[in-house]
């Protein structure tokens, strides 16, 4: 069978990140504009490869315009110079049942590092419109400092304002391409 191509269904997918603020609460942010493409050996997503995720840094939203502007600044993502985050998966490894590890290279601010995320494969269904869809829940954690996002401040009490660890969570629905 020839390779099956898949593309993201953006209306049924979301990409978010979570970061500790003042080490006492968690702030959630989203990328509102992103893309995912993949190929597999068959309709059941076996032999997945050529998995590419991109996010538009300018689409970042934390429900606070001032914070979003700061995140786009050179203190963090530097969106004027580096407007895209890119992950290229190079190995999709079954770790048992519907659990997988996706290994690949993540690029933020022109810095590329190997990253592994956990993937729960939700299965394959045909929707009411005849489209074949595959569902995934993705979770991972990265160090923002590994990618040059090193800005921070210290409170009077000595607490850091933004944690180094960034949790990544995504719900991804892919549509089989004709």
Write up this protein.
With 178 residues, the chain is mainly β. The protein has one domain (4-176): Lipid/polyisoprenoid-binding, YceI-like (Lipocalin). Helix content is 4%, strand content 58%. The chain contains one helix and eleven strands, in the order ββββββαβββββ. The chain has one helix at residues 65-72, and strands at residues 4-8, 14-21, 25-31, 34-40, 49-56, 60-61, 84-96, 99-108, 111-126, 132-143, 162-176. It has an eight-stranded antiparallel beta barrel with strand order 1-4-5-7-8-9-10-11. Strand 8 (99-108) and strand 9 form a beta hairpin. The protein is elongated and about 60 Å long. The mean pLDDT is 93.
Task: Describe the structure concisely.
With 178 residues, the chain is mainly beta. It has 1 helix and 11 strands; from the N terminus they run E-E-E-E-E-E-H-E-E-E-E-E.
Explain the layout of strands and helices.
Layout: E1 4-8, E2 14-21, E3 25-31, E4 34-40, E5 49-56, E6 60-61, H1 65-72, E7 84-96, E8 99-108, E9 111-126, E10 132-143, E11 162-176
Antiparallel strand pairs: 1-4, 1-11, 2-3, 2-11, 3-6, 4-5, 5-7, 7-8, 8-9, 9-10, 10-11
Share of residues in strands = over 45%
Strand tally, please? 11
Overall geometry: elongated
Task: Give average pLDDT, whole number.
Answer: 93
Q: Please work out how many helical segments DSSP would assign.
A: 1
H and E string: EEEEEEHEEEEE
Share of residues in helices: under 10%
Helix/strand/pairing class, anyone? Answer: mainly beta
């Amino acid at each position: 069978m020839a390779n099956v191509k898949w593309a993201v269904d953006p209306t049924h997918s979301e990409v978010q990140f979570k970061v500790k603020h003042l080490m006492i609460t968690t702030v959630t942010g989203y990328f509102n504009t992103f893309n995912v493409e993949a190929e597999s050996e068959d309709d059941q997503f076996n032999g997945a490869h050529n998995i590419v995720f991109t996010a538009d840094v300018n689409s970042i939203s934390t429900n606070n315009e001032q914070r979003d502007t700061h995140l786009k600044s050179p203190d963090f993502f530097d969106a004027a110079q580096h407007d895209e985050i890119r992950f290229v998966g190079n190995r999709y490894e079954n770790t048992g049942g519907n659990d997988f590890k996706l290994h690949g290279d993540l690029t933020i601010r022109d810095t590329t590092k190997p990253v592994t995320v956990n993937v729960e494969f939700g299965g394959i269904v045909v929707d009411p419109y005849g489209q074949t869809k595959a569902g995934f829940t993705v979770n991972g954690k990265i160090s923002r400092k590994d990618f040059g996002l090193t800005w921070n401040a210290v409170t009077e009490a000595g607490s850091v304002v933004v944690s180094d660890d960034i949790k990544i969570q995504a719900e991804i629905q892919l549509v089989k391409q004709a």
